Amino acid sequence: METIVFKNKALPFVELRYVKEIPACSKKHLHKELTFTAIKKGQLNIEFNENNFLLDVGEIVLINKDIVHCATLNRSSKDGYVLYLDEEFLIENSFSFPKRYEHLKQKDLYERFIFFCDSLLDKNISLIEKKELLYLFCLDIFTSKSNDKKDEENQNLSSQIKEYLDENFLEEISLDDLSRRFGITEVHLIRVFKKSFGLPIHSYILNKKVHLAKELLLSKAPIVEVALKSGFFDQSHLNRCFKRVFQITPKQFQKNILDKC
User: Fold this and answer.
1) Quick check: pTM over 0.90?
2) In the predicted structure, residue 205 carries a pLDDT above the cut 90
3) Three-state secondary structure along the chain?
């Protein structure tokens, strides 16, 4: 049975367990964290003392801590994701959450959950980006208790954040640094920026770096040199991000452009 666990001391409030072949779990149990469960194939029967329901592909079950439950196989099931999230993390960030459990059937929410889980398991994605994806996932799932400021104030704030990122995108920038600089929580930081510009902060920074790399590639500089000058860890890191934005590798771009010059 293939099992992969994501757990990192830099993100102590989240843990993810992926199981390729899902076993039956007929013994009633509980967890000390909120748990999210989703599958890519099959069907689970989620049982509580007073209720039960079938969990299908395209759905998520969210269970609060200390809620006794079990999961049995209604059909052979594969590719199971179980995410554990610390309740204190949610409280500190003013998220409200169900007291017992919820059966979430929105397909788009399921797809974003699977994407988030796969990103946590991806060794090529930095911890900074994983942390931001966690906040974005929480903003999708939970209701925030905190009241947003007026739209005009938020727009002004997001413009200030963008200006700072435009000037400093080659530096090491963390969400904690930005939240302290602008005197707001990390959740509010992410919310207002994505609402204004349509991209998470980390994705915006990567786009800035990729476009700088594109300009440098036109100078016939070696790709490994371009990678370092545009803020990437190495050529491999540049290749992944460049292809994500332009659908071709830096080498393909450089060859096809320069051959015509």
Assistant:
1) no
2) yes
3) CCEEEECCCCCCCEEEEEEEECCCEEEEECCCCEEEEEEEEEEEEEEECCCEEEEECCCEEEECCCCCEEEEEEEEEEEEEEEEECHHHHHHCCEECCCCEEEECCHHHHHHHHHHHHHHHCCCCCHHHHHHHHHHHHHHHCEECCCCCCHHHHHHHHHHHHHHHHHHCCCCCCHHHHHHHHCCCHHHHHHHHHHHHCCCHHHHHHHHHHHHHHHHHCCCCCHHHHHHHCCCCCHHHHHHHHHHHHCCCHHHHHHHHHCCC
